[in-house]
Amino acid sequence: MPDLPLITALPTLDEHELPVVGGEVRERCDAARNRRRILAAAEALVASEGASCVSMDRIATAAGVGKGTLFRRFGDRAGLLRALLSDRESDFQEQLIRGAPPLGPGAPPVERLLAFGPAYLEELQGYAELLAAVEASLESGMRMRSAPYQFYRTHLTILLRAAAPSIDAEYHADVLLAPLSAEVVLHQRDGLGMDLQRLADGWCMQAACLVGA
Amino acid sequence: MPDLPLITALPTLDEHELPVVGGEVRERCDAARNRRRILAAAEALVASEGASCVSMDRIATAAGVGKGTLFRRFGDRAGLLRALLSDRESDFQEQLIRGAPPLGPGAPPVERLLAFGPAYLEELQGYAELLAAVEASLESGMRMRSAPYQFYRTHLTILLRAAAPSIDAEYHADVLLAPLSAEVVLHQRDGLGMDLQRLADGWCMQAACLVGA
DNA sequence: AGAGTAGGCGGACCGCAGTCCGTTTGTCAA
DNA sequence: TTGACAAACGGACTGCGGTCCGCCTACTCT
Protein backbone atom coordinates (compact mmCIF):
# COMPACT_ATOMS: atom_id res chain seq x y z
CA MET A 1 0.00 0.00 0.00
CA PRO A 2 1.44 3.38 -0.96
CA ASP A 3 2.08 6.10 1.55
CA LEU A 4 -1.51 7.08 2.13
CA PRO A 5 -1.70 10.08 4.45
CA LEU A 6 -3.08 9.43 7.91
CA ILE A 7 -6.38 11.19 7.78
CA THR A 8 -8.87 10.62 10.53
CA ALA A 9 -11.21 13.53 10.06
CA LEU A 10 -12.06 16.26 7.66
CA PRO A 11 -9.57 19.08 8.11
CA THR A 12 -10.61 21.60 10.73
CA LEU A 13 -10.81 25.22 9.79
CA ASP A 14 -7.39 25.76 11.30
CA GLU A 15 -5.55 23.38 9.04
CA HIS A 16 -7.67 24.56 6.19
CA GLU A 17 -7.82 28.30 6.18
CA LEU A 18 -5.06 29.77 8.24
CA PRO A 19 -2.50 31.67 6.22
CA VAL A 20 0.51 29.55 5.49
CA VAL A 21 3.84 31.31 5.85
CA GLY A 22 6.78 29.44 4.45
CA GLY A 23 4.93 26.14 4.82
CA GLU A 24 4.36 26.85 8.49
CA VAL A 25 0.88 27.10 10.04
CA ARG A 26 0.53 29.07 13.25
CA GLU A 27 -2.26 28.76 15.76
CA ARG A 28 -2.90 31.55 18.18
CA CYS A 29 -2.19 30.44 21.71
CA ASP A 30 -5.63 31.39 23.03
CA ALA A 31 -7.11 29.24 20.27
CA ALA A 32 -4.91 26.31 21.26
CA ARG A 33 -5.82 26.72 24.92
CA ASN A 34 -9.52 26.78 24.09
CA ARG A 35 -9.23 23.69 21.91
CA ARG A 36 -7.63 21.78 24.76
CA ARG A 37 -10.31 23.00 27.15
CA ILE A 38 -13.09 21.98 24.80
CA LEU A 39 -11.68 18.50 24.20
CA ALA A 40 -11.14 17.95 27.92
CA ALA A 41 -14.67 19.07 28.78
CA ALA A 42 -16.19 16.99 25.99
CA GLU A 43 -14.24 13.92 27.00
CA ALA A 44 -15.34 14.23 30.62
CA LEU A 45 -18.99 14.78 29.78
CA VAL A 46 -19.07 11.96 27.23
CA ALA A 47 -17.41 9.60 29.67
CA SER A 48 -19.83 10.39 32.45
CA GLU A 49 -23.12 10.64 30.56
CA GLY A 50 -22.70 9.06 27.15
CA ALA A 51 -22.16 10.83 23.86
CA SER A 52 -25.80 11.00 22.88
CA CYS A 53 -26.82 12.80 26.08
CA VAL A 54 -24.36 15.67 25.86
CA SER A 55 -25.31 18.84 24.02
CA MET A 56 -22.94 21.30 22.41
CA ASP A 57 -24.19 24.03 24.76
CA ARG A 58 -23.23 22.03 27.80
CA ILE A 59 -19.78 21.26 26.45
CA ALA A 60 -19.27 24.96 25.74
CA THR A 61 -20.38 25.94 29.23
CA ALA A 62 -18.24 23.26 30.86
CA ALA A 63 -15.23 24.38 28.84
CA GLY A 64 -15.87 28.00 29.73
CA VAL A 65 -16.06 29.16 26.12
CA GLY A 66 -18.81 30.40 23.84
CA LYS A 67 -20.76 28.07 21.64
CA GLY A 68 -19.44 29.73 18.51
CA THR A 69 -15.94 28.68 19.46
CA LEU A 70 -16.90 25.01 19.40
CA PHE A 71 -18.29 25.25 15.91
CA ARG A 72 -15.43 27.40 14.61
CA ARG A 73 -12.96 24.84 15.88
CA PHE A 74 -14.68 21.57 14.97
CA GLY A 75 -17.22 22.43 12.30
CA ASP A 76 -20.13 20.54 13.77
CA ARG A 77 -21.10 18.06 16.44
CA ALA A 78 -19.76 15.11 14.47
CA GLY A 79 -16.42 16.83 14.05
CA LEU A 80 -16.06 17.45 17.76
CA LEU A 81 -16.98 13.91 18.71
CA ARG A 82 -14.71 12.50 16.03
CA ALA A 83 -11.84 14.55 17.40
CA LEU A 84 -12.24 12.66 20.68
CA LEU A 85 -11.26 9.42 19.03
CA SER A 86 -8.90 10.63 16.33
CA ASP A 87 -5.82 9.47 18.24
CA ARG A 88 -7.11 5.94 18.45
CA GLU A 89 -8.17 5.98 14.82
CA SER A 90 -4.76 7.26 13.75
CA ASP A 91 -2.97 4.57 15.70
CA PHE A 92 -5.03 1.87 14.05
CA GLN A 93 -4.45 3.30 10.59
CA GLU A 94 -0.76 3.48 11.36
CA GLN A 95 -0.80 -0.23 12.13
CA LEU A 96 -2.40 -0.98 8.78
CA ILE A 97 0.19 1.01 6.86
CA ARG A 98 3.37 0.47 8.78
CA GLY A 99 2.60 -2.06 11.49
CA ALA A 100 3.72 -5.65 11.77
CA PRO A 101 2.18 -8.45 9.68
CA PRO A 102 -0.38 -9.82 9.30
CA LEU A 103 -2.12 -6.45 9.71
CA GLY A 104 0.65 -4.38 8.19
CA PRO A 105 2.63 -4.95 4.99
CA GLY A 106 4.69 -8.09 4.61
CA ALA A 107 1.98 -10.72 4.85
CA PRO A 108 0.15 -12.00 1.77
CA PRO A 109 -2.93 -9.94 0.84
CA VAL A 110 -5.38 -12.64 1.87
CA GLU A 111 -3.89 -12.84 5.33
CA ARG A 112 -3.88 -9.07 5.70
CA LEU A 113 -7.50 -8.98 4.59
CA LEU A 114 -8.57 -11.65 7.08
CA ALA A 115 -6.65 -9.90 9.84
CA PHE A 116 -8.36 -6.58 9.18
CA GLY A 117 -11.92 -7.39 10.23
CA PRO A 118 -11.15 -8.94 13.61
CA ALA A 119 -8.61 -6.22 14.41
CA TYR A 120 -11.07 -3.49 13.50
CA LEU A 121 -13.81 -5.09 15.57
CA GLU A 122 -11.47 -5.44 18.52
CA GLU A 123 -10.46 -1.80 18.21
CA LEU A 124 -14.08 -0.72 17.92
CA GLN A 125 -15.06 -2.27 21.24
CA GLY A 126 -13.59 0.66 23.11
CA TYR A 127 -15.39 3.44 21.32
CA ALA A 128 -18.33 1.95 19.45
CA GLU A 129 -20.89 4.04 21.30
CA LEU A 130 -18.98 7.24 20.57
CA LEU A 131 -18.52 6.34 16.92
CA ALA A 132 -22.22 5.51 16.64
CA ALA A 133 -22.98 9.00 17.95
CA VAL A 134 -20.66 10.45 15.32
CA GLU A 135 -22.39 8.50 12.56
CA ALA A 136 -25.83 9.43 13.85
CA SER A 137 -25.08 13.13 13.81
CA LEU A 138 -23.69 12.97 10.28
CA GLU A 139 -26.30 13.62 7.64
CA SER A 140 -27.17 10.83 5.24
CA GLY A 141 -24.31 9.74 3.00
CA MET A 142 -21.67 11.75 4.84
CA ARG A 143 -20.39 8.73 6.74
CA MET A 144 -19.18 7.14 3.54
CA ARG A 145 -17.60 10.35 2.34
CA SER A 146 -15.63 10.86 5.54
CA ALA A 147 -11.87 10.53 5.39
CA PRO A 148 -11.65 7.50 7.73
CA TYR A 149 -14.19 5.57 5.68
CA GLN A 150 -12.36 6.41 2.48
CA PHE A 151 -9.14 5.26 4.05
CA TYR A 152 -10.47 1.84 5.04
CA ARG A 153 -12.23 1.53 1.71
CA THR A 154 -9.01 2.15 -0.18
CA HIS A 155 -7.13 -0.27 2.02
CA LEU A 156 -9.64 -3.06 1.40
CA THR A 157 -9.89 -2.33 -2.29
CA ILE A 158 -6.15 -2.74 -2.72
CA LEU A 159 -6.08 -5.95 -0.72
CA LEU A 160 -9.05 -7.39 -2.60
CA ARG A 161 -7.54 -6.57 -5.97
CA ALA A 162 -4.36 -8.36 -4.98
CA ALA A 163 -6.11 -11.31 -3.36
CA ALA A 164 -8.76 -11.97 -5.99
CA PRO A 165 -8.23 -10.04 -9.22
CA SER A 166 -11.39 -11.34 -10.82
CA ILE A 167 -13.90 -9.84 -8.39
CA ASP A 168 -15.29 -6.31 -8.23
CA ALA A 169 -12.93 -5.02 -5.54
CA GLU A 170 -14.47 -1.55 -5.26
CA TYR A 171 -17.94 -2.91 -4.66
CA HIS A 172 -16.86 -5.59 -2.23
CA ALA A 173 -14.81 -3.14 -0.18
CA ASP A 174 -18.07 -1.38 0.66
CA VAL A 175 -19.76 -4.70 1.34
CA LEU A 176 -17.07 -5.80 3.78
CA LEU A 177 -17.15 -2.45 5.57
CA ALA A 178 -20.93 -2.29 5.85
CA PRO A 179 -21.27 -4.83 8.69
CA LEU A 180 -18.43 -3.11 10.57
CA SER A 181 -20.37 0.13 11.03
CA ALA A 182 -20.77 1.11 14.66
CA GLU A 183 -24.55 0.91 14.42
CA VAL A 184 -24.53 -2.67 13.15
CA VAL A 185 -21.87 -3.88 15.57
CA LEU A 186 -23.57 -2.27 18.57
CA HIS A 187 -26.88 -3.82 17.64
CA GLN A 188 -25.34 -7.25 17.23
CA ARG A 189 -23.35 -6.97 20.43
CA ASP A 190 -25.78 -5.26 22.77
CA GLY A 191 -29.12 -5.93 21.11
CA LEU A 192 -28.59 -9.53 20.04
CA GLY A 193 -25.92 -10.54 22.52
CA MET A 194 -23.40 -11.74 19.95
CA ASP A 195 -19.88 -11.77 21.32
CA LEU A 196 -16.81 -10.37 19.65
CA GLN A 197 -15.52 -13.78 18.59
CA ARG A 198 -18.74 -14.57 16.80
CA LEU A 199 -18.67 -11.29 14.87
CA ALA A 200 -15.02 -11.77 13.95
CA ASP A 201 -15.57 -15.36 12.83
CA GLY A 202 -18.58 -14.38 10.75
CA TRP A 203 -16.75 -11.55 9.07
CA CYS A 204 -13.75 -13.73 8.27
CA MET A 205 -16.03 -16.41 6.86
CA GLN A 206 -17.57 -13.83 4.59
CA ALA A 207 -14.25 -12.43 3.43
CA ALA A 208 -12.63 -15.84 3.02
CA CYS A 209 -15.49 -17.14 0.87
CA LEU A 210 -15.23 -14.10 -1.31
CA VAL A 211 -11.56 -14.45 -2.11
CA GLY A 212 -11.83 -18.20 -2.34
CA ALA A 213 -9.65 -19.00 0.66
CA MET B 1 -41.65 -19.28 5.61
CA PRO B 2 -44.48 -19.23 8.14
CA ASP B 3 -47.24 -16.67 7.98
CA LEU B 4 -45.24 -13.73 9.19
CA PRO B 5 -47.50 -10.70 9.56
CA LEU B 6 -47.00 -7.94 7.01
CA ILE B 7 -45.51 -5.23 9.11
CA THR B 8 -44.04 -2.22 7.45
CA ALA B 9 -43.87 0.23 10.29
CA LEU B 10 -44.21 0.47 14.01
CA PRO B 11 -47.89 0.57 14.86
CA THR B 12 -49.32 4.07 14.92
CA LEU B 13 -51.12 5.25 17.99
CA ASP B 14 -54.41 4.47 16.31
CA GLU B 15 -53.82 0.78 15.88
CA HIS B 16 -52.22 0.75 19.27
CA GLU B 17 -54.35 2.59 21.71
CA LEU B 18 -57.83 3.02 20.42
CA PRO B 19 -60.44 1.13 22.41
CA VAL B 20 -61.27 -2.14 20.77
CA VAL B 21 -64.93 -3.05 20.77
CA GLY B 22 -65.68 -6.60 19.78
CA GLY B 23 -62.46 -6.85 17.82
CA GLU B 24 -63.36 -3.72 15.85
CA VAL B 25 -61.28 -0.54 15.92
CA ARG B 26 -63.00 2.72 15.15
CA GLU B 27 -61.32 5.86 13.94
CA ARG B 28 -63.09 9.14 14.24
CA CYS B 29 -63.88 10.55 10.83
CA ASP B 30 -62.11 13.86 11.45
CA ALA B 31 -59.03 11.87 12.36
CA ALA B 32 -59.25 9.84 9.16
CA ARG B 33 -59.72 12.96 7.08
CA ASN B 34 -56.74 14.64 8.68
CA ARG B 35 -54.57 11.60 8.12
CA ARG B 36 -55.38 11.62 4.44
CA ARG B 37 -54.69 15.34 4.23
CA ILE B 38 -51.33 14.97 5.98
CA LEU B 39 -50.20 12.12 3.76
CA ALA B 40 -51.27 13.96 0.62
CA ALA B 41 -49.49 17.14 1.68
CA ALA B 42 -46.36 15.24 2.69
CA GLU B 43 -46.27 13.30 -0.56
CA ALA B 44 -46.59 16.47 -2.63
CA LEU B 45 -43.91 18.34 -0.71
CA VAL B 46 -41.51 15.40 -0.71
CA ALA B 47 -42.01 14.91 -4.43
CA SER B 48 -41.37 18.54 -5.24
CA GLU B 49 -38.52 19.36 -2.87
CA GLY B 50 -36.99 16.14 -1.59
CA ALA B 51 -37.59 14.49 1.75
CA SER B 52 -34.65 16.08 3.53
CA CYS B 53 -35.80 19.64 2.73
CA VAL B 54 -39.31 19.39 4.10
CA SER B 55 -39.99 20.22 7.73
CA MET B 56 -42.84 18.92 9.84
CA ASP B 57 -44.12 22.48 10.28
CA ARG B 58 -44.46 22.97 6.56
CA ILE B 59 -46.28 19.68 6.11
CA ALA B 60 -48.67 20.64 8.90
CA THR B 61 -49.32 24.04 7.36
CA ALA B 62 -49.79 22.58 3.88
CA ALA B 63 -52.22 20.01 5.26
CA GLY B 64 -54.12 22.67 7.18
CA VAL B 65 -53.70 20.95 10.53
CA GLY B 66 -51.75 21.68 13.69
CA LYS B 67 -48.30 20.31 14.24
CA GLY B 68 -49.45 18.26 17.21
CA THR B 69 -51.75 16.31 14.92
CA LEU B 70 -48.82 15.11 12.81
CA PHE B 71 -46.99 13.77 15.82
CA ARG B 72 -50.08 12.26 17.38
CA ARG B 73 -50.79 10.39 14.16
CA PHE B 74 -47.31 9.29 13.12
CA GLY B 75 -45.16 9.44 16.22
CA ASP B 76 -42.22 11.24 14.71
CA ARG B 77 -40.73 12.40 11.46
CA ALA B 78 -39.46 8.93 10.56
CA GLY B 79 -42.93 7.49 11.11
CA LEU B 80 -44.54 9.98 8.79
CA LEU B 81 -41.99 9.50 6.02
CA ARG B 82 -42.18 5.74 6.39
CA ALA B 83 -45.94 5.89 6.01
CA LEU B 84 -45.39 7.39 2.57
CA LEU B 85 -43.78 4.21 1.36
CA SER B 86 -45.56 1.61 3.42
CA ASP B 87 -47.72 0.51 0.48
CA ARG B 88 -44.70 -0.25 -1.64
CA GLU B 89 -42.96 -1.99 1.24
CA SER B 90 -46.01 -4.11 1.92
CA ASP B 91 -46.30 -5.14 -1.71
CA PHE B 92 -42.71 -6.28 -1.75
CA GLN B 93 -43.08 -8.21 1.48
CA GLU B 94 -46.19 -9.80 0.05
CA GLN B 95 -44.16 -11.01 -2.91
CA LEU B 96 -41.62 -12.60 -0.60
CA ILE B 97 -44.25 -14.48 1.37
CA ARG B 98 -46.87 -15.35 -1.19
CA GLY B 99 -45.49 -14.29 -4.57
CA ALA B 100 -44.27 -16.45 -7.43
CA PRO B 101 -40.91 -18.21 -7.36
CA PRO B 102 -38.03 -17.59 -7.30
CA LEU B 103 -38.83 -14.71 -4.93
CA GLY B 104 -41.75 -16.39 -3.24
CA PRO B 105 -42.07 -19.92 -1.89
CA GLY B 106 -41.68 -22.85 -4.22
CA ALA B 107 -38.13 -22.32 -5.40
CA PRO B 108 -35.15 -23.86 -3.58
CA PRO B 109 -33.80 -21.68 -0.73
CA VAL B 110 -30.59 -20.83 -2.59
CA GLU B 111 -32.53 -19.52 -5.55
CA ARG B 112 -34.87 -17.53 -3.35
CA LEU B 113 -31.88 -16.08 -1.56
CA LEU B 114 -30.15 -15.06 -4.77
CA ALA B 115 -33.38 -13.56 -6.07
CA PHE B 116 -33.86 -11.44 -2.98
CA GLY B 117 -30.95 -9.01 -3.33
CA PRO B 118 -31.52 -7.97 -6.92
CA ALA B 119 -35.27 -7.68 -6.37
CA TYR B 120 -34.78 -5.55 -3.28
CA LEU B 121 -32.29 -3.31 -5.07
CA GLU B 122 -34.66 -2.92 -8.01
CA GLU B 123 -37.50 -2.03 -5.67
CA LEU B 124 -35.31 0.42 -3.79
CA GLN B 125 -34.52 2.45 -6.90
CA GLY B 126 -37.87 4.17 -6.69
CA TYR B 127 -37.67 5.37 -3.11
CA ALA B 128 -34.06 5.20 -1.99
CA GLU B 129 -33.85 8.90 -1.23
CA LEU B 130 -37.00 8.78 0.86
CA LEU B 131 -35.85 5.70 2.74
CA ALA B 132 -32.48 7.32 3.37
CA ALA B 133 -34.31 10.26 4.93
CA VAL B 134 -36.23 7.83 7.13
CA GLU B 135 -33.04 6.14 8.26
CA ALA B 136 -31.31 9.46 8.86
CA SER B 137 -34.05 10.72 11.12
CA LEU B 138 -34.09 7.51 13.14
CA GLU B 139 -31.78 7.63 16.11
CA SER B 140 -28.83 5.27 16.21
CA GLY B 141 -29.76 1.60 16.35
CA MET B 142 -33.44 2.17 15.65
CA ARG B 143 -33.14 1.27 11.98
CA MET B 144 -32.26 -2.30 12.89
CA ARG B 145 -35.05 -2.52 15.43
CA SER B 146 -37.70 -1.36 12.97
CA ALA B 147 -40.32 -3.84 11.86
CA PRO B 148 -39.33 -3.85 8.18
CA TYR B 149 -35.70 -4.58 9.01
CA GLN B 150 -36.74 -7.38 11.35
CA PHE B 151 -38.93 -8.81 8.63
CA TYR B 152 -36.15 -8.96 6.04
CA ARG B 153 -33.75 -10.24 8.65
CA THR B 154 -36.06 -13.10 9.54
CA HIS B 155 -36.64 -13.90 5.90
CA LEU B 156 -32.91 -14.12 5.17
CA THR B 157 -32.19 -16.06 8.33
CA ILE B 158 -34.66 -18.75 7.36
CA LEU B 159 -33.35 -18.99 3.80
CA LEU B 160 -29.75 -19.13 4.99
CA ARG B 161 -30.47 -21.84 7.49
CA ALA B 162 -32.08 -23.92 4.79
CA ALA B 163 -29.45 -23.21 2.17
CA ALA B 164 -26.35 -23.66 4.29
CA PRO B 165 -27.03 -25.20 7.70
CA SER B 166 -23.42 -24.98 8.81
CA ILE B 167 -23.06 -21.20 8.75
CA ASP B 168 -24.14 -18.62 11.33
CA ALA B 169 -27.41 -17.66 9.65
CA GLU B 170 -28.35 -14.94 12.14
CA TYR B 171 -25.07 -13.14 11.75
CA HIS B 172 -24.96 -13.42 7.98
CA ALA B 173 -28.51 -12.15 7.60
CA ASP B 174 -27.29 -8.84 9.02
CA VAL B 175 -24.22 -8.94 6.81
CA LEU B 176 -26.26 -9.45 3.66
CA LEU B 177 -28.66 -6.67 4.61
CA ALA B 178 -25.96 -4.17 5.51
CA PRO B 179 -24.97 -3.30 1.93
CA LEU B 180 -28.63 -2.94 0.98
CA SER B 181 -29.20 0.03 3.29
CA ALA B 182 -30.43 3.10 1.49
CA GLU B 183 -27.39 5.08 2.53
CA VAL B 184 -24.94 2.57 1.07
CA VAL B 185 -26.89 2.03 -2.14
CA LEU B 186 -27.34 5.74 -2.76
CA HIS B 187 -23.66 6.37 -2.24
CA GLN B 188 -22.69 3.59 -4.61
CA ARG B 189 -25.21 4.65 -7.23
CA ASP B 190 -24.99 8.42 -7.09
CA GLY B 191 -21.63 8.99 -5.48
CA LEU B 192 -19.60 6.31 -7.23
CA GLY B 193 -21.69 5.88 -10.35
CA MET B 194 -22.21 2.14 -9.99
CA ASP B 195 -25.24 0.94 -11.92
CA LEU B 196 -27.96 -1.33 -10.63
CA GLN B 197 -26.65 -4.37 -12.46
CA ARG B 198 -23.25 -4.01 -10.85
CA LEU B 199 -24.73 -3.79 -7.37
CA ALA B 200 -26.98 -6.78 -8.00
CA ASP B 201 -24.14 -8.87 -9.43
CA GLY B 202 -21.87 -7.99 -6.52
CA TRP B 203 -24.51 -8.83 -3.95
CA CYS B 204 -25.27 -12.19 -5.62
CA MET B 205 -21.59 -13.00 -5.78
CA GLN B 206 -21.34 -12.37 -2.07
CA ALA B 207 -24.38 -14.44 -1.21
CA ALA B 208 -23.48 -17.26 -3.58
CA CYS B 209 -19.97 -17.60 -2.17
CA LEU B 210 -21.40 -17.74 1.30
CA VAL B 211 -23.78 -20.61 0.68
CA GLY B 212 -21.26 -22.37 -1.56
CA ALA B 213 -23.25 -22.05 -4.76
C1' DA C 1 7.10 50.27 22.57
C1' DG C 2 3.07 51.30 19.96
C1' DA C 3 -0.24 50.89 16.38
C1' DG C 4 -2.68 48.21 12.98
C1' DT C 5 -4.86 44.09 11.81
C1' DA C 6 -6.02 39.23 11.05
C1' DG C 7 -8.23 36.12 13.32
C1' DG C 8 -10.54 34.51 17.57
C1' DC C 9 -14.39 35.09 20.45
C1' DG C 10 -19.20 34.60 22.34
C1' DG C 11 -23.88 34.92 22.75
C1' DA C 12 -28.10 36.45 20.41
C1' DC C 13 -30.54 34.43 17.00
C1' DC C 14 -32.73 30.91 13.59
C1' DG C 15 -35.34 26.84 12.13
C1' DC C 16 -35.95 22.37 13.57
C1' DA C 17 -38.15 18.03 15.99
C1' DG C 18 -40.82 16.90 19.52
C1' DT C 19 -44.00 17.85 23.93
C1' DC C 20 -47.86 19.60 26.56
C1' DC C 21 -52.18 21.02 27.85
C1' DG C 22 -56.35 23.83 27.53
C1' DT C 23 -59.98 23.73 23.98
C1' DT C 24 -62.97 21.70 20.54
C1' DT C 25 -65.54 18.05 18.40
C1' DG C 26 -67.35 13.57 17.01
C1' DT C 27 -69.89 9.78 19.01
C1' DC C 28 -73.19 7.31 21.50
C1' DA C 29 -76.64 6.37 24.93
C1' DA C 30 -80.57 7.97 27.16
C1' DT D 1 -82.58 15.93 20.77
C1' DT D 2 -79.45 16.44 24.06
C1' DG D 3 -75.91 15.78 27.40
C1' DA D 4 -71.58 13.77 28.72
C1' DC D 5 -67.31 12.00 27.69
C1' DA D 6 -63.41 10.28 25.25
C1' DA D 7 -60.61 11.46 21.79
C1' DA D 8 -58.67 14.72 18.56
C1' DC D 9 -56.96 19.14 17.95
C1' DG D 10 -53.49 22.98 17.58
C1' DG D 11 -50.25 26.16 18.76
C1' DA D 12 -47.25 27.87 22.41
C1' DC D 13 -43.22 26.06 24.35
C1' DT D 14 -38.62 23.57 25.08
C1' DG D 15 -33.99 22.29 23.94
C1' DC D 16 -31.26 21.26 20.16
C1' DG D 17 -27.64 22.03 16.29
C1' DG D 18 -25.88 25.50 13.70
C1' DT D 19 -25.05 30.59 12.02
C1' DC D 20 -23.84 35.40 12.29
C1' DC D 21 -21.75 39.52 13.36
C1' DG D 22 -19.89 43.11 16.26
C1' DC D 23 -16.34 43.18 19.77
C1' DC D 24 -11.78 41.90 21.44
C1' DT D 25 -6.99 40.35 21.58
C1' DA D 26 -2.71 38.14 20.32
C1' DC D 27 0.63 38.74 16.97
C1' DT D 28 3.48 41.52 13.54
C1' DC D 29 5.78 45.19 11.63
C1' DT D 30 7.92 49.39 12.20
SSE layout and pairings?
The structure is a homodimer of 213-residue chains.
Chain A (H helix, E strand, L loop, with lengths): L12 H5 L2 E2 L2 E2 L3 H21 L6 H8 L3 H8 L2 H8 L1 H13 L10 H17 L2 H10 L4 H4 L1 H17 L5 H9 L4 H10 L4 H16 L2
Antiparallel strand pairs in A: 1-2
Helix pairs in contact in A: 2-3, 4-5, 5-8, 7-10, 7-13, 8-12, 10-11
Chain A binds a DNA duplex (30 and 30 nucleotides) through helix 2, helix 3 and helix 4.
Overall description:
Two copies of one chain form a homodimer. With 213 residues, chain A is an all-alpha fold. Helix content of chain A is 69%, strand content 2%. The first copy, chain A, has helices spanning 13-17, 29-49, 56-63, 67-74, 77-84, 86-98, 109-125, 128-137, 142-145, 147-163, 169-177, 182-191, 196-211; strands spanning 20-21, 24-25. Chain A has a two-stranded antiparallel ribbon with strand order 1-2. In chain A, 34% of the residues are buried. Chain A binds chain B through residues 52, 132-133, 135-136, 139-141, 143-145, 167-168, 170-172, 174-175, 178-179, 181-184, 186-188, 191-192, 194, 198-199, 201-203, 205-206, 209-210, 212, and chain B through 52, 132-133, 135-136, 139-141, 143-145, 167-168, 170-172, 174-175, 178-179, 181-184, 186-188, 191-192, 194, 198-199, 201-203, 205-206, 209-210, 212. Chain A binds a DNA duplex (30 and 30 nucleotides) through residues 18-19, 26, 28-31, 34, 55-57, 60, 65-69, 71-72, 76-77, 137.
